[in-house]
Amino acid sequence: MHKILLATIIFCSSFLFVPALHAETSTGKVGDDNSQKIQQELEDRREEQRQEIQTKRIETRLRLAKNHAERLQKRFSFYYERLNNIITRFQARLDLSKTEGKDTTTSQQLLDQAKSNLLSAESKGKEAIQTFTSFDPEWSQDEMQNKVRLGQSQAEEARNAFKQVLELLKSALKSYD
Questions:
Q1: Count of the separate structural domains present in the chain
Q2: Choosing a second label site near 171 at 20 to 30 A (CA), which of 6, 12, 73, 162?
Q3: Between vectors from CA 173 to CA 169 and to CA 175, what angle results, nearest 5°?
Q4: Within 13 Å and on the Cβ side, how many CA atoms surround 64?
Q5: Per-residue confidence of the chain (177 residues) as pLDDT tens digits?
Q6: Is the distance from CB of 124 to CB of 79 less than 8 angstroms?
Q7: Is this model's pTM higher than 0.85 or not?
Q8: Among residues 153, 131, 157, 155, which one has the least CA distance to residue 143?
Q9: Which of 45, 51, 176, 174 is nearest to 103 (CA)?
């Protein structure tokens, strides 16, 4: 952030010295050549600074997308492991109750639905992560923004799917008791 601000200040200050340099030159042909050279040098510097700023913007966007993908990966894998462990334990409890002769059909149906929804939520999470890791530095700003919006909506869908699995597990547990 400080580098971008510094580059912007340098870029803006270069405009302040152009009129001063132009005023110092004499009105002869030699002065015109010097002012043209100086003006060309300043334009070249400005173009270099623009390119540096653009490169830094792209690097920052890619780094942010990568970091976001890593955070999503950690979060979704945590959700999946946690819910999968709950499903496994609850399935063991249902199997034990079934051997004791209790009716567990409603709970089993809800648990089976939770299992399938968990797999769906996991795949949606992987799609969102893939979207954030597939950024290309050659894309325009609009393309990157569209990809970010797509990734955000996919991540929200995955999060809602994990929530739905949790609600199904709660319902299965209530019907078990």
A1: 1
A2: 73
A3: 115
A4: 10
A5: 656 655 666 665 665 555 555 555 545 555 678 889 999 999 999 999 999 998 898 888 889 889 999 999 999 999 999 999 999 999 999 999 899 888 888 999 999 999 999 999 999 999 999 998 888 878 888 888 898 899 999 999 999 999 999 999 999 999 887
A6: no
A7: no
A8: 131
A9: 176
Q: Quick one: CA dihedral 166, 168, 169, 170, positive or negative?
A: positive
Range of the domain at 122: 2-176
Report the alpha-carbon distance of residue 86 to residue 139 in Å, rounded.
Answer: 42
Give CA–CA dist 24/134, Å, rounded.
53
Cα(17)–Cα(42) distance, rounded to whole angstroms? 10
25 phi and psi angles, rounded to 5 deg: -70, 150
- Cα within 13 Å of Cα(70), Cβ side: 6
